[in-house]
């Protein structure tokens, strides 16, 4: 196992039990069986480790729901697939999700707040594109309110998954929320959140990632990947960025090759946005 990955996995175990503040670098290194020097070769500080964990999990979550929205063939099934994927991800990463929900309500760490806000805005953009695709002009005046309704459903119902140790029928939950969302979309007539207000909310959002930044991330990923097909696909996608020669069908195929690899979820998300797939 790569030492950086080992530190992240072992630190997550401690954070889940003790929280961010109560966990020291000394405890993390002891739990990993490594020296402090080895830790600082991978991370400059505990805060950098925390940000890396947030990036790791939020990149996967954001990429997965973005893929569902962009690649769903049927508009009728899109909302169901979105909810199901979101709650399945909450269940899969429940330990980390619990930490984030707890820390967000307590932290004064500005970098942590900005990082969570960044991913929150990415998720809002994905939800907006889904709402516009499903309902179109029908929700022209209320679509921004709907974004917050969908986020509210995700937040409240995810707590059933995270904080109650009982089996839940994710299929039934998703079907129930599809019905609720459809009712709101088709019968809400008094909008509250305007386009002007949403622009105020999104002003702190980071600028769009540039081609040069994507190329830099690609270079990093190439060194981390061992699987031949995935590695070759990433190399070809890098070539496509530098000098576009492949047809859209080939690019889509290359993106399919890498989308489920743990080191490629974020780059897959960035490339789908860049190529507008």
Condensed summary:
With 277 residues, the chain is mostly helical. Helices cover 76% and strands 0% of the residues. The radius of gyration is 20 Å and the shape is globular.
List keywords for this structure.
mainly alpha, Arc Repressor Mutant, subunit A, Tetracycline Repressor, domain 2, globular, DNA binding, repressor, HTH_TetR, HTH-type_Tx_Regulator, DNA-binding
Structural class: mainly alpha
Global geometry: globular
Q: Low-confidence parts, pLDDT < 50 over ≥5 residues?
A: none
CATH architecture of the largest domain: Orthogonal Bundle
Biggest sheet features: none
Q: How much of the polypeptide forms β-strand, as a percent range?
A: under 5%
Write the H/E string, N to C: HHHHHHHHHHHHHH
Return Rg in Å: 20 Å
Distance between the termini: 34 Å
Provide mean pLDDT, rounded.
87
Describe this structure in words.
It holds the Pfam family TetR_N. Keywords: DNA-binding, Repressor. This is TetR/AcrR family transcriptional regulator. With 277 residues, the chain is mainly alpha-helical. The protein has helices at residues 3-18, 25-32, 36-42, 46-71, 75-92, 94-104, 110-135, 143-163, 170-187, 195-202, 211-224, 228-242, 248-258, 265-275. The two termini are 34 Å apart.
Question: Which helices and strands occur, and which strands form pairs?
Answer:
Layout (H helix, E strand, L loop, with lengths): L2 H16 L6 H8 L3 H7 L3 H26 L3 H18 L1 H11 L5 H26 L7 H21 L6 H18 L7 H8 L8 H14 L3 H15 L5 H11 L6 H11 L2
Helix pairs in contact: 1-2, 1-6, 4-5, 4-7, 4-14, 5-8, 5-9, 7-8, 8-9, 11-12, 11-14, 12-13
């Amino acid at each position: 196992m790569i030492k950086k990955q080992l530190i992240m996995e072992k630190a997550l175990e401690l954070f889940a039990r003790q929280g961010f503040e109560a966990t020291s670098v000394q405890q993390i290194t002891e739990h990993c069986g490594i020296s402090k020097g080895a830790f600082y070769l991978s991370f400059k500080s505990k805060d950098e480790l925390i940000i890396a964990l947030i990036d790791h999990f939020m990149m996967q979550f954001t990429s997965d729901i973005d893929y569902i929205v962009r690649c769903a063939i049927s508009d009728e099934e899109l909302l169901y697939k979105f909810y199901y994927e979101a709650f399945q991800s909450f269940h899969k990463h429940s330990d980390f999700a619990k930490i984030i929900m707890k820390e967000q309500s307590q932290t004064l760490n500005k970098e942590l707040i900005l990082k969570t806000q960044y991913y929150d805005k990415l998720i809002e953009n994905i939800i907006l594109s889904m709402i516009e695709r499903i309902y179109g002009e029908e929700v022209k005046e209320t679509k921004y309110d709907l974004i917050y309704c969908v986020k509210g459903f995700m937040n409240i119902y995810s707590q059933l998954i995270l904080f109650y140790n009982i089996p839940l029928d994710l299929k039934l939950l998703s079907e129930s929320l599809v019905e609720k969302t459809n009712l709101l979309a088709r019968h809400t007539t008094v909008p509250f959140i305007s386009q002007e207000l949403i622009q105020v909310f999104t002003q702190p959002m980071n600028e769009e990632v540039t081609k040069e930044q994507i190329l830099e991330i690609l270079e990093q990923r190439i060194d981390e990947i061992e699987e031949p097909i995935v590695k070759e696909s990433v190399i070809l996608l890098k070539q496509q960025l530098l000098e576009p020669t492949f047809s859209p069908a080939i690019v889509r195929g290359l993106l399919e090759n890498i989308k489920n690899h743990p080191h490629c979820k974020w780059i897959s998300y960035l490339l789908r946005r860049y190529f507008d797939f």
